[in-house]
Write a structure and sequence with these properties.
39% of the residues lie in helices and 32% in strands. With 118 residues, it is of the alpha+beta class.
């Protein structure tokens, strides 16, 4: 009888330990995905204005079979700012969104301001 009770306690402990490890592994995988998506978004954001011109509009594409990207470039509008005063450069908002995951879509968005010649 004591052996049966000991085996029951052991199986319950093993089930709990397995559950804790599986949750930890899922969390680690999600953190790795967010880290990779952030690095891809930073890379894409850095290439805007260098590898490709800064033009108003939306562009999209795929990094690989898991991650897709979308870039939105729009004029920056500040309330109360007279845009006619600055004739040399105008600010543009550049946002890059990297998405992944089919059943539950996840994404990372990074934004910055860039000055472009008029």
């Amino acid at each position: 009888m004591e052996v049966l009770v000991a085996l029951t306690i052991l199986s319950l402990c093993l089930a709990i330990i397995y559950s804790v490890f599986s949750v930890g592994l899922r969390g680690r995988r999600a953190a790795e995905d967010y880290e990779q998506a952030t690095q891809l978004a930073e890379s894409k954001l850095d290439s805007v204005g260098i590898d490709e011109p800064i033009q108003e509009g939306i562009t999209a594409g795929q990094f690989n079979d898991r991650f897709s990207w979308r870039t939105v470039v729009a004029p920056y509008r500040e309330i109360g700012r007279d845009e006619s005063k600055d004739v040399r450069r105008r600010p543009m908002t550049v946002s890059v969104t990297v998405s992944w995951g089919d059943p539950d879509q996840r994404s990372v968005t990074l934004s910055t301001l860039r000055l472009v010649p008029r």
